[in-house]
Specification:
Elements lengths: L15 H18 L3 H27 L7 H17 L4 E4 L6 E6 L22 H13 L4 E7 L8 E7 L13
Antiparallel strand pairs: 1-2, 2-4, 3-4
């Protein structure tokens, strides 16, 4: 039986709740496997980095974003397009320094920690959503932008908001466009 020509193929998307619960189970397993929070944080960052290096191709193909000319534009694309596309939230963006290479993404609501009320006992150094930092860092690296991405504040640690800091490590090279005639 064939599908009518006017119907588009259905996109099978993972249920957000299933993703969040699966992520919670992953973090719980990592906490069982590793005694130190730093080891869990590194592992989550490494996993996120691998996801980010692969996800950037999908993002560029689906989002149709144009070339960015400064770090502010890049950070706004991450917040307004990528976070909305993949997590269904839009963090606010603030610039943290005068050289305009450090920004914060402020999440009023973090989908990955939606069903988590507090960190496990004895895990105060755990960065529960460190996967996000790795994803952002990996995606940026794939478009030749080195960045340091870390959690600055986390609601799970008693802060008012969740804040991810992005510091771009290299100044962009000014390119003069030359048209060939």
């Amino acid at each position: 039986m064939s599908r009518p020509a006017h119907r588009r193929p259905e996109c099978h998307k993972i249920n957000k709740d299933l993703l969040v619960l699966t992520y919670g189970a992953l973090v719980a397993q990592l906490c069982e496997d590793h005694e130190k929070d730093e080891d869990v944080n590194k592992y989550l960052d490494k996993m996120g980095y691998g996801i980010g290096t692969r996800l950037v191709e999908d993002f560029l193909a689906r989002s149709c974003v144009r070339r960015c000319h400064n770090y502010s534009e890049i950070t706004h694309i991450i917040a307004e397009v990528a976070f909305k596309m993949y997590l269904g939230v839009t963090p606010s963006v603030t610039c943290n320094n005068s050289s305009k290479n450090a920004f914060s993404l402020i999440l009023d609501k973090n989908p990955l920690s939606e069903f988590v009320e507090e960190l496990p006992a004895g895990r105060s150094s755990l960065c529960y959503c460190n996967l996000l930092c790795g994803i952002i860092r990996g995606a940026l690296e794939m478009v030749h932008l080195a960045a340091d991405v870390t959690f600055l504040q986390d609601r799970l640690k008693g802060d008012r908001v969740t804040e991810i800091g992005i510091t771009f490590l290299k100044q962009p090279k000014e390119r003069k466009s030359q048209r060939r005639k």
